[in-house]
Amino acid sequence: MPSDQGDGVDARSPKDRHGRSILSNTLLARPETPALLFLILLLAVFSVTTKGFFSVNNFIGILEQGVIIAIVGLAVNQVILSAEIDVSVGSVLAVCAFIYGNLAMMFGGNLLPLFATLAVGTAIGLLNGVLSTYGKVPSIITTLGALFVYRGLILLLAGAQVLNVPKTSRVLGLSDVAGIPVSVLLLVVLAVGFYWVSTNTAWGRNIYAVGGNESGATTLGLPVNRTRLIAFVLSGAACGLAAAGFLGQIGQLQATAGTSFELRVITAVVLGGTSIRGGRGSVFSPIVGALLVGVILNAMTLNRVPGTMELFVLGVLILLSVSSEGIRQRYLEKKI
After folding, report:
1. CA 91, 94, 99, 105: dihedral to nearest 10 degrees?
2. How far, in whole angstroms, is CA 254 from its chain's centroid?
3. What's the chain's Rg over C-alpha atoms?
4. What is the dihedral of CA 326, 308, 98, 143, to 10 degrees?
5. 101 partner at 20 to 30 Å CA-CA among 46, 74, 320, 332?
6. Alpha carbon 111 to its chain's center
7. Contact 211, 82 (CB under 8 A)
8. CB burial string 5-26: b at 16+ within 10 A, e below
9. 332 pLDDT more than 60
10. Any idea where the domains of the chain sit in the sequence?
């Protein structure tokens, strides 16, 4: 009688083996799976090694920090899926926050400031998109230029000004429903919306086709430029929405607001499993990635790691993510 071990014979039925193989390959093939596993590992390690990490208040703080990154990340994710890039989101967020803060100081409330920031953010995204798609200026050049132009504009206009936003205009940062921050609920709604669009609309499917094979998409007659343009518009609009949540959380506005925010967003998107080359990723990649970034930055703060190390850490994470993506793709291709 053959034994179950040592003779190279698998005692399981072919159907059982096939089912488990499909399950393991499907889980591994999900873009966000490695990031999710890494997140679980870090939560376990920091809970044991870092004093004050494992607490409800700290986890809420991580959520609140990550939610602003994730809101913008959901839109930037679409830009990267289309094989483009938007590195201007930090400066766009600052512009929108500046407008929101000043309108809140003058008129109070939330609707007028929010409407204005959404309009401005959308307009900036449209300009970036037109230059990058129809103007044929590489998106890295377009958005890098926008990063410096808008940051310089805010520094020129705001200078050393510090705005204290009234509490009545901080609904997206201070309010909660049954103990859950409104900003988190907003992120859930946006994620569901992006998922529905991604799976049920032509544009959502075109994003992957355009990013994965532009020449093939052009041959099939897909609207390549329009698809990418909409992604840029969404990126700008997301900055306008996130600005309201950002100011709602911190309550103060300075000209340096949003500095290095673009690096956090891109790190979250790539770390979450979206390919920097485009065409591969999921709606949930930036959310998982944003939580990862939030956990890492939070642990650095609790362990009193200097803030100057943030750029180094985020840069290393991007390099590791891009490298591991290539390794995993080769592994998956061998399994097919």
Report:
1. -170
2. 23
3. 22
4. -30
5. 74
6. 25
7. yes
8. eeeeeeeeeeeeeeeeeeeeee
9. no
10. 66-305
